[in-house]
Amino acid sequence: MGWLYPFRSRPWAEIAAEFHRLADARPAYRPMAEVVDSVLGSGTVLLGTTSLGDLIVADRPVPRAPWGAVVVSGPWSRRAAVAPGPVRVEHVGADGESDERPVAEAVPLFWCFVTRKFGVMPAAQVS
């Protein structure tokens, strides 16, 4: 099951600025800033927003409710119980799944989920 309220995307530059400010104050947020930077550099058309420190990513066009998303969370998250150390990437929707990995694997894990769930790959990987 996905979210029942409308998806409200935010500009990626705004999301990046938010996570870079957080990462400057708390290094635990650095993987979130790296994931957002990878989206900015990817040439994709993904939609993004944030909620309680989580990154929520959906595919275009703007999804209608109920909608699913790839969500990136860390130990600061108020919606997902993540132990200190790893980052969690999950697909929230009818076929939801999740995986936790060390923070060094945040960007590759994020793109694995986005590619599987939305069929979207960063431009550098498209052949």
pLDDT < 50 runs, ≥5 residues: none
Distance between the amino and carboxyl termini: 33 Å
Order of helix and strand elements from N to C terminus = HHEEEEEH
Strand order of the largest sheet: 1-2-3-4-5
Structural class: alpha+beta
Topology:
Blueprint: H1 12-25, H2 30-40, E1 47-51, E2 54-58, E3 69-73, E4 86-92, E5 97-102, H3 106-118
Antiparallel strand pairs: 1-2, 2-3, 3-4, 4-5
Describe it:
The structure is a single chain. A 5-stranded antiparallel sheet has the order 1-2-3-4-5, with helices on one face. Strand 1 and strand 2 form a beta hairpin. It starts with 11 loop residues before the first helix and ends in a 9-residue tail after the last helix. The chain is globular and about 35 Å long. It is of the alpha+beta class and 127 residues long. It has helices at residues 12-25, 30-40, 106-118, and strands at residues 47-51, 54-58, 69-73, 86-92, 97-102.
Main attributes?
alpha+beta; 5-stranded antiparallel beta sheet; 127 residues
Summarize this structure briefly.
It contains 3 helices and 5 strands, in the order ααβββββα.
